């Protein structure tokens, strides 16, 4: 590194330490830019792929009210994806490149969306647990150092809290219903509990990016801190539903003021991350198919925009 670069980096860190937000045109270390492209695009892809398990249930929602709410939720996720792709683009990558990275498997998305949604109760469990875990991460991100990302997260968080409540309300209705309905709710919790805890990522001592991310205020809490916070918040909600969290080691620890909980199956986590989860292939195939079938729409939009531009040019001339 040259002396000039060292100075720039020191000034950059000083701005972060003063809690100033970093904007698209500001100088930033290459690694900061790359980390953000990776993180924001991974987040955008998760929103878009996350539409698939729930989209699958829109036609089978048990009432018009449930259908409208689920439709709105899935549309919100599309909007989240679009804001986030735009935020990633401010760092100098194109939408086409981002899409290509998802389709080729180079870019990751949250491993939770590689699990199937088998019953209607899964719509409840996903909203309650998956959106709940997402909120925990995202509230922290509203104060992340990169301005365009932080601002996108403010709006996204408002919508996520609606998602979580609609999920919890589905669970509550099922738990107050027939024995079979309650059984479905318990089964959904059994299947989604551990994958939800995995959403916070590897343990701190196995998360190589955490230290730098905390220093740059990309992250303000570590994976393990957020996971603990999620468990502490969610266990009383499960109790209120009258459901059992599928973890025999789960116990309130008076001394720590937190719940102790059992070990996550990290083999399963890495298998899913590496592309061998129950639905990895299905999800990517669905995205590629949508991309190919939507080609004529993109072409028509570009042609329309070009025609409009040339007409305005003619008028100006
Ligand atoms: Fe979302
Ligand atoms: Fe959501």
Describe this structure in words.
This protein is mainly alpha-helical. Helices cover 69% and strands 2% of the residues. Strands 1-2 form a two-stranded antiparallel ribbon. β1 (251-253) and β2 (258-260) form a beta hairpin. The chain is globular and about 75 Å long. The chain binds fe (ii) ion (2 copies). One fe (ii) ion binds at residues 77, 131, 160, 163.
Overall shape: it is globular
What distance lies between the first and last C-alpha atoms, to the nearest angstrom? 50 Å
- Beta-strand residue fraction: under 5%
What's the rounded overall pLDDT mean?
94
Which sequence of strands runs across the widest sheet?
Answer: 1-2
Largest sheet: 2 strands, antiparallel
Radius of gyration of CA atoms, rounded to a whole number: 22 Å
List unreliable stretches of 5+ residues: none
Q: What is the helix fraction of residues, given as a range?
A: 55-70%
- Secondary-structure element string: HHHHHHHHHHEEHHH
Bound molecules: fe (ii) ion
Blueprint of the fold:
Elements: H1 3-17, H2 30-49, H3 51-55, H4 64-89, H5 95-104, H6 121-141, H7 147-175, H8 179-198, H9 210-215, H10 223-241, E1 251-253, E2 258-260, H11 266-276, H12 280-293, H13 295-316
Antiparallel strand pairs: 1-2
Helix pairs in contact: 2-4, 4-7, 6-7, 6-8, 6-10
The structure holds fe (ii) ion (2 copies).
One fe (ii) ion binds near residues 131, 160 and 163.
């Amino acid at each position: 590194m040259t002396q000039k670069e060292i100075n720039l980096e020191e000034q950059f860190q000083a701005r972060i330490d003063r809690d100033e937000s970093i904007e698209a045109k500001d100088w930033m270390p290459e690694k900061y830019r790359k980390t953000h492209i990776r993180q924001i695009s991974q987040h955008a892809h998760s929103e878009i792929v996350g539409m698939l398990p729930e989209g699958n249930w829109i036609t089978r929602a048990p009432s018009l009210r449930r259908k409208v709410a689920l439709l709105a939720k899935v549309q919100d996720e599309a909007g989240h994806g679009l804001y986030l792709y735009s935020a990633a683009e401010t760092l100098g990558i194109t939408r086409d490149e981002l899409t290509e990275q998802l389709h080729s498997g180079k870019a990751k998305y949250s491993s939770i969306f590689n699990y199937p949604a088998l019953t209607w109760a899964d719509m409840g469990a996903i909203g309650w647990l998956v959106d709940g875990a997402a909120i925990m991460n995202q509230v922290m991100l509203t104060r992340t150092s990169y301005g365009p990302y932080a601002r996108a997260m403010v709006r996204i968080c408002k919508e996520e809290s609606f998602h979580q409540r609609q999920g919890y309300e589905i669970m509550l209705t099922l738990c107050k219903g027939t024995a079979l309905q309650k059984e479905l709710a318990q089964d959904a919790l059994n299947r989604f509990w551990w994958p939800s805890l995995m959403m916070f990522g590897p343990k701190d001592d196995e998360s190589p990016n955490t230290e730098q991310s905390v220093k740059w205020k990309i992250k303000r809490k570590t994976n393990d801190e957020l996971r603990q916070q999620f468990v502490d918040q969610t266990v009383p909600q499960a109790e209120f539903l009258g459901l059992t969290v599928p973890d025999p080691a789960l116990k309130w620890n008076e001394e720590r003021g937190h719940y102790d909980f059992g070990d996550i199956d990290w083999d399963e986590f890495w298998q899913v991350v590496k592309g061998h989860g129950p639905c990895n292939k299905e999800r990517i195939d669905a995205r590629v198919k949508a991309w190919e079938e939507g080609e004529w729409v993109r072409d028509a939009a570009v042609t329309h925009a070009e025609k409009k531009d040339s007409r305005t040019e003619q008028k100006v001339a």
